[in-house]
Here is the input.
Amino acid sequence: MKIAFIIPRNSSDSQRSFYDYQFGKRFLLSSKHISYLLAIPVLTSLTPPEHEIKVFDENIEDIDYTWNADLAAITVRTMFAKRAYLISENYRTRGTKTVIGGIHPSMCPEDALPHCDSVVVGEAEEIWHTVLEDAENGRLKRLYKADKVADLKAAPVPDRSSLPKNRYILDIVQTTKGCPFHCEFCAVHAFDGQTIRNRTIEQVIREIEGINRSAAKYKKKNAIFFADDNIIADKPFAKELFSALRPYNINWMCQASINISRDSEILELMKESGCGAVFIGFESVSGENLAMMRKGINQRYDYLDAIRKIQSYGILVHSSFIVGYDFDTPAAFDELIDFIRESNLLMPLINILTPLPGTKLFKRLEAEGRILHRDWSKYDTQHVVFSPARMSPEELLEGYKRVMRSVYSFDSILRKLDHYWMKDFWKHSNECDPVKSPYRFLFAARLATLLISPNMKRSRFIMRILPHVFDRQVRISTILALMNYNNFAYAL
Ligand code: B12
Here is the structure.
């Protein structure tokens, strides 16, 4: 068969996604996208070689419908479900059979079924070969359910060879699945289970060696995002993994729970193996909200202490907060702004509470009649899709925008950058990924081209930043990421 594997677009012309990095792309005159979705290299690795395959990532290029596929396999998360359904319908009008899988259709298959020939609930590893056999023999079923969780140790290495080459900034690698917590707003424990499943260290290292080889071909430095929900969920495994990563000279990032701050051995191993940043879900500064979210673990930690401790290892803390939980009043926005200012968190992700299908939160809000609509394209944490308890939807949206604009104003960015430069924070990561002078010069020149613009605040920021661009402790990618956030926040 000819099989098209599809990653639907994150945003539409009328609706921007932060993950498009529009400003950064324009600035660098680059069409690179942040990353692919790992589900696709997993699926292609499970597809027998007799099939002809092509991957279309709409974040990079349009789908070539004229490549007459027999089967289109589409991966779907809630925020681009609407787009995915449209793609599926386009294929079907051309006579191509379509299969939809991923967390969204797994949590609500009945939503996806009218738009495709077949829905796969659960992980592909145990069921994909059956789907392919049935498709080949013209007997696709409407619904497939993986009846057991994937044995990750038996799974092949994800196959990235069909991805559009050299068009991504980050590689995605997953070493474990599952999460022991059961936060109300999160679907991971319902989907991946609460028991932690590991791959073997050998599998992960083989995968990283493969990524390194292809990065060398394009002379690019390797950056890896570990897509584990909590990379320290199985601590002995994590320690072994970090030790094994040491020789590979990669820059990597991950997600972890806040208790990482109390494990000096782990932090040391992370630093030594090239970890530049760890993403932590702080979620809220209100104890009542944390209790309601069932994120009790966060209440046992002093956030400021935890951030200080982790950052003392040269590992930047990326943070995530939710606004609009039931105990949030309009005063919550200022409390959050104050906390972020006090903690100097450099790139906090601010999310409007979003009841994703399959979560306990969705069920509760639905039972309380508080879900406003099911336009999935707005379930992206930048829109209000439910009735908040202690404010109106409009107040929540305005409060969110206010937090974003305050946290990412050029004044605030500059103040925080100064804080990190004073500490020479990027000493370690700049040693491992030095930006050479010619590139710094190009960056400065490109910044200078933005000086003549009606955006006076940005011009003032550039004037202040230009003299620093050649300092060793200044990380160029960080400045660009922050300018990207600013651009996004003020376009909201
Ligand atoms: C890595 C990650 C990110 C990275 C994205 C990098 C990337 N390119 O993937 C970052 C940090 C940028 C990110 C951002 C966001 N994320 Co995120 N992220 C994840 C995470 C931790 C891992 C995803 C992953 O790679 N999994 C590994 C792959 C192999 O698993 P998979 O995609 O599920 O695929 C398997 C099955 O689903 C199935 N399958 C998938 N597709 C298909 C297709 C077919 C045809 C078949 C047969 C099977 C199949 O088989 C696969 C193999 O087993 C998940 C949590 C999780 N455990 O999944 C959240 C998750 C996907 N993210 C989520 C959310 C909400 C977001 C954000 C909105 C958060 C925010 N506020 O910014 C943004 C939105 C980004 C966007 N617009 O896409 C939610 C999505 C929920 C939903 N219902 O859609 C998740 C599930 C977390 C959660 N708490 O619920 N995320």
Notes: The longest strand covers residues 275-283. The chain has a mean pLDDT of 92.
